[in-house]
Design goal:
Elongation Factor Tu (Ef-tu), domain 3, six-stranded antiparallel barrel, 216 residues, 2 domains, alpha+beta
């Protein structure tokens, strides 16, 4: 579990294609002494497992499924990435609950200056539209952000100067693809409130005939 509060950015030192996907080497800007092999780390919002580490670098395997569902396949030597280690129980939750399980890939439609901040408009996949809520939370490339405005499958977020400096967003450009993870609580609420959906009706034994038979 993560919070979407980025610890720092890293740089891709190498990308190696392997039969099951690819292996990446990431150079960090923070101490990895407390990060053990086998532990999780979020890379651009994708939960990966540290398979090896040496000094300020670590290695991680990226499966074919992850390459298909995220933007990690776009990475190349020299690419900058957002990094976050898992949340420790008892620590402050500065952002929101983030799993590191990418729900879809968005596309940056526009970037506009708003004083010292930048407003970024992102096109999301249609399947995620129902989870886009004004003033709700969303993780973009692993960064916890507040949604300012929503228009169908498009939403906007405001990037303050601090976030620009501490993440890869300072280099974000129109047309860039970004990993999106919607609020996990929102997904559960949507699931629980869709009891009248066709999917639910196929799986439940409670029908109109059943209710009439039992006096309802």
């Amino acid at each position: 579990m993560f919070t979407g509060i980025i610890e720092g950015t890293g740089r891709i030192k190498s990308v190696k294609k392997v039969p099951q996907g690819m292996q990446i080497e990431v150079e960090t800007h923070f101490d990895l002494e407390r990060s053990n092999v086998g532990e999780s780390i979020a890379v651009n919002g994708c939960c990966l497992t540290i398979t090896s580490r040496l000094g300020t670098s670590f290695w991680a395997d990226v499966s074919a499924e992850t390459l298909d569902k995220t933007t990690l396949g776009d990475l190349s030597e020299g690419s900058a990435v957002n990094l976050e280690r898992p949340l420790k129980m008892g620590e402050r939750l500065g952002g929101h609950l983030v799993q590191g399980h990418v729900d879809g890939i968005g596309s940056v439609e526009a970037i506009q200056a708003a004083g010292e901040a930048r407003e970024i408009r992102i096109q999301s996949p249609q399947k995620l539209a129902c989870y886009l809520v004004e003033k709700g939370s969303i993780a973009v490339d692993g960064v916890s952000l507040t949604i300012n405005q929503v228009e169908r499958e498009t939403f906007s977020v405001m990037i303050i100067p601090h976030t620009q400096m501490k993440t890869t967003f300072h280099g974000l450009k129109t047309g860039n693809r970004v990993n999106l993870e919607v609020d996990i609580i929102g997904k559960y609420v949507a699931k629980l409130t869709h009891f009248d959906s066709e999917e639910y009706q196929k799986g439940t034994k409670i029908t109109q005939e059943f209710l009439k038979k039992h006096g309802f």
